[in-house]
Specification:
Blueprint: H1 13-21, H2 30-45, H3 48-54, H4 70-77, E1 85-89, H5 93-99, E2 104-109, H6 112-121, E3 126-129, H7 134-139, E4 145-150, H8 156-163, E5 167-176, H9 182-190, E6 194-200, E7 209-215
Parallel strand pairs: 1-2, 1-4, 2-3, 4-5
Antiparallel strand pairs: 5-7, 6-7
């Protein structure tokens, strides 16, 4: 259902009576329409309603995504990540997301049952159960990764400290719930990485949260398509005008 703004032409008693008696006319403040539109965008287009009901982190169109800020997800959706090897510390439907976009995915997970489910859905990913300290397993890697995602059900500070030497030049680290882990965030900033915070709602939750990217100073975003940023979910594709061309 789509709605449009209908303003009285004259405001005469006759016109107002006609509008009030028209069963196809809904009388409501503009603010109420805006709130209804906002609710629909969040509930249906971004998929919050379905994600809450099913406890599955997916967008409105069913695409699996990390359980992170919608703003971060939309930014990542606009990037060409096909050349990146991903180390994911803490997996799930996020593993599906990275597997569909990156060159390779290696996932470390502390929950054995979660490992089995994740591996079955992602046969190309390397999904490993880690029973001991995650930091020790991370430190044992003899390779580097272009993207490192820190989102385990474990100590994030020690995981981040172990992960820093494994980050490739030109890559980036993602820390989920960075607003909850200020010490981990400071550690990554102090490593001369550029922090960008994404505050937004996220799937399966009723409150806003923060996920942050910590970029190597050599990171150069490569658009997946002809433009970056993408038009956001629920945005308007406005035709280009003279404000964005050379004169």
């Amino acid at each position: 259902m789509y709605w449009n703004l209908l303003k009285p032409q004259t405001g005469s008693p006759e016109e107002m009576a006609r509008l009030n008696n028209d069963p196809n006319v809904v009388k409501t403040p503009v603010s109420s329409v805006f709130l209804a539109s906002t609710f629909t965008l969040l509930s249906e287009d971004l998929g919050l309603r379905r994600s809450a009901d099913t406890n599955e982190s997916k967008l409105g169109d069913g695409t699996p995504v990390p359980m992170m800020s919608y703003a971060l997800i939309e930014y990542l959706n606009g990037l060409d990540l096909t050349g990146f090897d991903v180390l994911e510390i803490g997996g799930g439907l996020s593993t599906d997301f990275w597997s569909a976009r990156a060159k390779s995915v290696t996932t470390l997970e502390t929950d054995a049952a979660w490992v089995k489910q994740t591996a079955e859905r992602n046969p190309k990913a390397v999904v490993e159960h880690v029973a001991g300290p995650l930091s020790e397993r991370i430190a044992a890697f003899d390779r580097t990764f272009g993207i490192i995602v820190i989102d385990p059900s474990a100590n994030r500070l020690t995981s981040a400290r172990a992960a820093l030497p494994k980050l490739e030049k030109g890559g980036f680290i993602i820390l989920d719930n960075s607003d909850w882990y200020p010490n981990t965030s400071k550690l990554l900033r102090d490593a001369d990485l550029i922090e960008v915070d994404f505050h937004d709602f996220r799937p399966c939750h009723h409150y806003r949260a923060t996920a942050s990217i910590y970029m190597s100073r050599d990171f150069r975003p490569k658009p997946k398509g002809p433009r970056l940023p993408l038009s956001p979910i629920g945005g308007k594709q406005i035709a280009l005008n003279g404000w964005d061309i050379e004169r």
